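pinging the channel bc i need a second pair of eyes. not urgent but kinda urgent?? the chain im working w is below, pasted from the shared doc
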Amino acid sequence: MNHVLEAIRLADRWVDAWNRRDLLGLLALYADGSEFHSPFVTLMPSVRDASIKGKAALTAHFEASWAVGPREKMALEDVRLSEGGMTLYVRGGCAPRMEMEFRLDGAGRIAWSKSCLTQDLPTPRSA
């Protein structure tokens, strides 16, 4: 991804779909064989490793995450572009603060992602 507006739009769509618990909207952002790495994957009793692959596994993960209980809304704090992708910094959702790295395919869908907890958000570029 090389355009900041495209990155912000994708980030906004992801956070909006998460907050509305819109499974189809969220899955539409992912490529069919996407890989997902996150400590939250182990919320599913059948998963021992912190990574999953494919939309069926993503469906089970998102549904398990939403079923754990009420969560505060996720808020987008920052988006950073990187070679072939982007990183979102968010508050709320499953954790107080989280960093989500996305690598995109040629169609702009998420082909690989990694989520991790973070204590501090990065210093804004304008600071």
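so The radius of gyration is 14 Å. and Strands lie at 30-37, 51-53, 75-82, 85-92, 95-104, 110-117. — does that match what u expected or am i reading it wrong
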